[in-house]
Design brief:
13 helices
Length: 303
């Protein structure tokens, strides 16, 4: 199988690339810097975003996966604030990547069978009580707007007879990076505790289950539409703090005040202060079996 992965050098993209290569599939990564990233994945081919190149590679491919988009949480703590410039970058990077892929697929003579579009559970809004699943309405905050625009950027692909999947991904836990490294930092300094009032939910998923669920949906020809890629066992922030503290052998005693995060991170503090109890209803209904559904059993292997 030939797989095109846009954004294949990020946290999820890297893990997906390794998985497909291990299964002896042909992988082509679309990157803004193909030359500098080639040595990371010598068994994959790197291409840029030039339209003619995209058309040539997509024609005859079996699956296209779009993970491209500027990071919501930034590359480090001081880069997390959603300034007007960063908001524009977050939004435009998703719109432009989706539009480029959709255009190339429209022109390609031999179109792929399936297209996977990444999104996030921020689609539902980061505030609100009660359980949400794929039938729940979209939220109205900035993160929800980003997710809606991100998903819509490739919706035209369905008009070409292509099976399109949308994966609304939760907080990814991996030893190789992601927001979890920032969340565990206070515990490393013996300053761990719940964030804010601790009642907000963390809807999480392991990197192994992200990769496995994406491949499951791609291989399952009956799957189509939106799926929440989250563990069926979300935790409150307080419960999360207790699990992390126990796994690291650190005390859980110092709550991080809401006002402090808002001063440091501004609007981006919603990533830590707010959260929804999101369930993977459609993924479970499709028959997917989670490898990691208990955080206390997963964390030791990550830490």
């Amino acid at each position: 199988m030939k797989v095109i992965i846009a954004g294949g050098t990020g946290l999820i993209g890297s893990a997906l690339t390794e998985s497909f290569i291990h299964a002896q599939h042909q992988v082509v990564i679309v990157s803004r810097f193909p030359e500098s990233t080639q040595m990371r994945f010598p068994s994959a081919r790197m291409i840029g975003w030039e339209t003619e190149t995209l058309i040539r590679e997509i024609s005859g491919s079996d699956a296209v996966i779009n993970l491209a988009g500027a990071s919501l949480s930034g590359t480090h703590l001081l880069d997390m604030r959603w300034t007007p410039k960063r908001k524009t970058s977050i939004m435009n990077s998703r719109v432009q990547a989706g539009a480029a892929l959709a255009e190339a697929i429209q022109i390609a003579d031999n179109k792929p069978e399936v297209f996977f579009q990444a999104s996030a559970i921020g689609f539902y809004g980061n505030k609100g009580a009660g359980i949400v699943d794929e039938s729940s309405p979209a939220g109205r905050d900035f993160l929800a707007e980003v997710c809606q625009v991100w998903e819509h950027s490739t919706s035209v692909i369905e008009e070409f007879g292509i099976r399109r999947l949308v994966g609304r991904i939760g907080l990814v836990f991996s030893r190789d990076g992601g927001l979890f490294n920032l969340l565990k930092l206070p515990f490393s300094l013996y300053l761990g505790g719940p964030i804010g009032d601790g009642t907000q939910f963390l809807s999480w998923i392991s990197i192994q289950d992200v990769v496995s669920s994406i491949r499951f949906l791609i291989d399952n020809h009956q799957s189509q539409g939106a799926y929440n890629l989250v563990s069926p066992n979300p935790l409150t922030n307080l419960e999360f703090a207790q699990v992390v503290g126990s796994s690291m052998g650190r005390p859980v005693w110092l709550p991080i005040p809401e006002f402090a995060l808002k001063i440091i991170l501004g609007e981006a503090s919603t990533l830590a202060l707010d959260g929804r109890q999101v369930m993977p209803k459609r993924l479970l209904d499709a028959g997917y079996q989670f490898r990691d559904n208990q955080l206390d059993k997963l964390l030791p292997s990550i830490l």
